[in-house]
Each structure stands twice: as structure tokens, then as C-alpha cells.
Amino acid sequence: MNYQVISIRHKLKRILARCLISQVKDEEGVQKLQLSVFDNEVIDSTPRYQNYGFTSNPRIGAEAITVFNDGDRSSGIAIAIDDRRFRLKGLKEGEVAIYTDEGDSIILSRNNVIKIKTKSFKLDCEECDITAKKFRVSDGNSDIVATLTDWMEEVIGATTNTMLGPMKLIGAGLPALKQKLERFKL
């Protein structure tokens, strides 16, 4: 076979590589990866370009697909990162998810449902406005809105004995507040 054909074939084989991430440097404007190519070759300071507005710091051992300009292993760019150890599985066609190795996730599900799963949820904002036809807060055992309305029912019905006979303990405003809460019950 012609030497030039062999050289071209060799370069083509070296243009794309599946690598393991062995180190991540995330201090600069562009993340730099140390990659271990599957033929025991180590490549330092490979830039990883990410989509605007999205960033992540992959775990050591994640896989990277890397493109090398003209097959030159010193000028690569990591174009995709995946970690099969932690990737969410079982999504339905069309669903989108963001996830971590600790099990946190945001899933944009079918039928316009967004599911958020985490241990602790913290919202930091200047102002929060939630508009909902139905609203439920639950601890997993009981519906907080239902608990509040049940408690209000007890308070509304509470009486005390006076010299004039049994008297209600509350004013007229509480039943109206209870009705407003009832509208949020699922």
C-alpha cells in the first residue's frame, strides 16, 4: 500500500478518541482536562468547551469524546462528556434531565411536568411569585393545606362557656380565610 494512503489512514484513526478523565482544572475561563486515552496515552490540558449558560465539573473516570486537529494529540478539544455510572436512565422519548452523581435531578417530563429531586432545596431571590390553581405542601405523610384547614375547622367550631352561655372564640374573619385555603386543596 502507498505510504501516503497509510499516513492518511493513521491520521484519520487519531482524529477522534474516547478517553477517560483523570484530572479536571476548573479555575480558568475554559476548563482543562487531563485525559487518558485507552491505549495508555496521557494528554494534559485539553480544553473542554461547554454550551453557554451550562457548566459542570465531571467526576474523575468520566468518559470524554475528544477531537484532535489533523490527528495531532497535542491539539485536542473535548466535545462531549458522559458518565455512565451516574447517568439517569429510563427517560421517556422527548424528556430532558439535569443530574448529579449524588442523585439530585431536574426532569422536564412529558405533559408539562417538571420534577425536582434533592435532599435540601434552597431558593435565594429578591421576590417570589407563585401562581397556581392548586397548591399542596406535604411532608410525605400529610397535606399541609389539609392540616391547616382541619385545624381552622376546630378553631372555628371552638366555644367557651360564659355567663351568657356558650360563645365562639373567634371573629368572623377566620371562616373566610378557611374558604380561601380550601380552594388550594387537591
Describe this structure in words.
The chain is an alpha+beta fold and 186 residues long. The protein folds into 3 domains: 3-82, Nucleic acid-binding proteins (OB fold (Dihydrolipoamide Acetyltransferase, E2P)), CATH 2.40.50; 86-121, no CATH class; 131-186, no CATH class. 20% of the residues lie in helices and 32% in strands. The chain is built from 3 helices and 10 strands. It has helices spanning 3-15, 144-157, 173-182, and strands at residues 16-25, 31-37, 41-48, 63-68, 76-82, 96-99, 105-109, 113-117, 159-162, 165-168. The protein has a 5-stranded antiparallel beta sheet. Helix 2 packs antiparallel against helix 3 (173-182). The radius of gyration is 30 Å and the shape is rod-shaped.
